[in-house]
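User: Earlier you gave me the apo prediction for this protein. Now I'd like the version with flavin-adenine dinucleotide bound, so I can compare the two side by side. Same sequence as before, with the ligand SMILES added.
Assistant: Got it. Here's the input I'm using:
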Amino acid sequence: MAELNIEKGSSRKSAYDLRDPNAHAVERHTLAVVVDNEAGVLARVIGLFSGRGYNIESLTVAEIDHNGHTSRMTIVTTGTPAIIDQIKAQLGRIVPVHEVHDLTVEGASVERELALFKVSGKGNDRVEALRLADIFRASVVDSTLHNFTFEITGSPEKIDAFAELMRPLGLSEMARTGVAALSRG
Amino acid sequence: MTQPMTGAQMVVQALKDQGVDVVFGYPGGAVLPIYDEIFQQNDIRHILVRHEQAAVHAAEGYARSTGKVGCALVTSGPGATNAVTGLTDALMDSIPIVVLSGQVPTFMIGNDAFQEADTVGITRPCTKHNWLVKDTAALPGILHEAFHVARSGRPGPVLVDIPKDVQFASAIYTPREAARTDRYNPRVKGDIEQIRRLARAMTEARRPIIYSGGGVINSGPRASQLLRELARETGFPLTSTLMGLGAYPASGDAWLGMLGMHGTYEANLAMHGCDLMINIGARFDDRITGRVQDFSPQSVKAHIDIDPSSINKVIHVEIPIIGDVANVLEDLLAVWRAEEGSRTQREAVKGWWAQIEEWREVRCLDYDTSPRVIKPQHAVARLEALTKGHDRYICTEVGQHQMWAAQYLGFEDPNRWMTSGGLGTMGYGQPAAMGVQVAHPDALVINVAGEASWLMNMQEMGTMVQYRLPVKQFILNNERLGMVRQWQELLHGERYSQSWSEALPDFVKLAEAFGAKGIKCSDPADLDDAIREMIDHDGPVIFDCLVEKHENCFPMIPSGEPHNKMLLANAETQGQITAPGAVLV
Ligand SMILES: Cc1cc2nc3c(=O)[nH]c(=O)nc-3n(C[C@H](O)[C@H](O)[C@H](O)COP(=O)(O)OP(=O)(O)OC[C@H]3O[C@@H](n4cnc5c(N)ncnc54)[C@H](O)[C@@H]3O)c2cc1C
Ligand SMILES: Cc1ncc(C[n+]2csc(CCOP(=O)(O)OP(=O)(O)O)c2C)c(N)n1
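And here is the structure of the complex with flavin-adenine dinucleotide:
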C-alpha cells in the first residue's frame, strides 16, 4: 500500500486536496460490476472515472449472459477508503448498472489475467526463456527461428514477475488482458 | 391500438401518456416529422423559444414550480449543443426534465453529416441518463423509461436522441403501463435502525439544528409538511440552503434564515456550534461547509438523502439514512413521538435558543438606506413588502442580486423559488420565469435579475410578448458584474478587471422595442409607486432599477474559512481572504 503523496499543509492549496485532509492510505480494490450490455455503457463507466478524477489500473469487460444482455466489468482501482466508497456509490447511480461488488472486501476472491509475450532471443537465452516458461507454466503458442510467443495466465503479480525475467532474455512485445476476478466459494 | 404508428406520432403519444401539457422547443431539419405531428394536435402546447438554452431553462422553471417533469424539444447539432448548459444546470440542481433532440438519420451517423453532433456523447456527463434510439419499435419504451428515470430517485435531466429515419418509420406503440421501468428503482424507505438512532440522538441533543435542502422540495409537498411538523414538535431551530428555501416558512418560529457563504450569522454560528446536525435533503455543498476540516467540529451528524453517493462524499456522517425525505420523516416522526425523551426536549433546548437569540441580535442583514440612491437590499425588501400576499413565484439570475433575493424575500411555501444554485448559470432566470408563467398563467412571476445576467438570454422577451406571459423582470442595475466586482475588491486589490457593464441598452426602450412595458427607477422616493406600477401592469415588464454601484453582499464567509469567520456589513474587509482561500471559488 503506497502512501498518498500530499505534503503537509498543502491541503489548503486547492479545493481538490480539501477532499482528503487526512491523507489516508491508498488502497487497491477490485470491483465487479454487472451492467446491461448496451451501447455507451463502457463510456459511462470510464467517463465517471475520468470526470471525477478516479484511477483505473485495469478494466476488462465482456458479455456474460447473451440472452439477458448483461456484461461483467472487472475494474481494479486505487483510492482512499472514502474515495473507494464514493466510486461504488457513483457506479451504483448509473442506470444500466445492476450490481457493484467490491471483491476486495467481500471475502476471498480469485484474480486472473492472461498475457502474451513475444521473446526474441538467441542461443542460450532461447533455452533459458523456455526453461523459465516451464517453471511459470507458460505455454508456447507460436514459434519461429527468431522468437517464441508465450501465453501465461495468473495473478497480475505473477505476470509482472514473468515479464521481469523475460526482459533480459529478449522480451520484445507484450499484450495483457487486464484482470478478471470472482469471489471464492 | 395495435395499428402501427410513426416514430414522430409515438413521440406525441408518449408525451400525452406521460401527462405533458407543454413543450418548450425550437424546430430544425432533424425534428421536422415531430413538428409536423405537433401541428396536427391540440393536447400539447408548444412554446417557441428564441434559443434552445432558454427552452431547457424554461422546462426547468416549469418543473420546479409544478413538481412535474419539464419537457424540451430541440433539433440536431447546434440545437442539441445549445441545450448543454441547461442540462448541466438541471443535473446540478436535481431538476427533472426530458429533452428530446433530433439526430441525422441512422445510416448517416458518423459521416460528419449536416448538423450532426455526437449528442449522446456530449451530453453523457450532463444527464442522469441518455439514449440514442436506433429502432422505432424501441422508441416508445425508451420515452416512458426516460420520464421514469427523470422523476424517480434523485430527479435529474435525461435526453433522448431520435434520428430522423426513426421518426419516419412505423412500428407498434407500447403504452405507458406496458413499458419497462424495473431496471431503475432507487430505494425510498429509510433503514429503521438508523432512524431509531437519530430519534434517540434527538432526545439527547442540547444544541440541535435542522439543516434542510433542495431534497425536501424534490420529495414533494408532503415532505415540506412533515418538515414543518418535525420543527414544531421538536422545537429545534432550522436553517435551509439556497435550494431549499420555502420548504419551511420564513415566518415560522424555528427559522434562522439561509445558511452558507451568504447565510445569516445565527444560522452559520448555530451550524458551527451545534451538537446534533440533522441534514435533510442537502448535500454539504462547499458554499455551506467552508473549510471542511473546521466544519461543525463538535456535532454528531445525520444525513437523510435518496442518493447514496451524496452520503459521506464531503462530510463524514455518523447517522446515514438513505431514503426519500417524506418517507423517512414519516417514520422518524412516528419513532420520535414514541420516544420517552421527546416530551422534555423542548425545555432542554431552551438554553440553545437563548444563545441563538444573542447571535440574532447582531442583526446581520441590517443595511444603511440612503435618500439619494436605491440600495439593492432596500429594493428587494420593498419588492417583498409590496408583493407579499400575491400568488407569487420568484426566479433569479446569478450574482449579488440572487443572494439579496434569497436574504430579503420570505418564502412561505415550496416550489415558489427558482434559482440556479449548483451551476450558477447567468441567463437562467428569464427563461425559467417564462416556464413558471406558462405553468401558472395567473400568478405574479418575477425574475430578480442583475443587468449582466439578464442580457445573456434577453432574446426571450420576444417569447414572452408572443405568448402574453406577463413576467416581471426586476433588474437591479448596478452597471457592474457585481459579484465578480465584489470578489475583485476583496481578493484582488480592487483591480476591477472587466467587471463592469459598458454600453448597456436603454431598458425602457428595449422593452418597448419588444412590445413590452419598460419602467425605470433611480430615486428611492419613487420606488414603491414604480413597483406597484410593475405589479399592476397586465403584461411583461422590464423594470430597470438603478441601484448603488459598489454595494457588497454580506454576510460573507470568505472562501476557505470556517463558519465562525464571517464578514459582516461595514467590516474591515481588506486582507480578510487569505492567499490559499483565493484559490477556491
Ligand atoms: C453566487 C452563488 C452563491 C451561493 N451562495 C450560497 C449560500 O450562501 N448558501 C447556500 O445554501 N447556497 C448557496 N449557493 C448555492 C450552492 O451552490 C448549492 O447549489 C446549494 O447550497 C445546494 O443546495 P442543497 O444542499 O440543498 O442541495 P441540492 O443541490 O438541492 O441537492 C439536493 C440533495 O437532496 C437529495 N435529494 C433529492 N431528492 C431527494 C428526495 N426525494 N429525498 C431525499 N433526498 C433527496 C439529492 O440527492 C441531493 O443530495 C450559491 C450559489 C451561487 C450561484
Ligand atoms: C454563464 C456565466 N458566466 C460567468 C459567470 C460568473 N459570474 C458570477 S456572478 C457574475 C456577475 C453577474 O452580474 P449581474 O448579473 O449584473 O449581477 P450582480 O452580481 O451585479 O447582481 C459573473 C460574471 C456565471 N456565473 N455564469
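For your comparison, keep in mind: The pocket of flavin-adenine dinucleotide (ligand 1) is lined by residues B 93-94, 154, 213-215, 218-219, 241-244, 258-263, 281-283, 285, 287-288, 304-307, 310, 324-325, 398, 402-403, 421-422, 424, 483 (CB under 6 Å).
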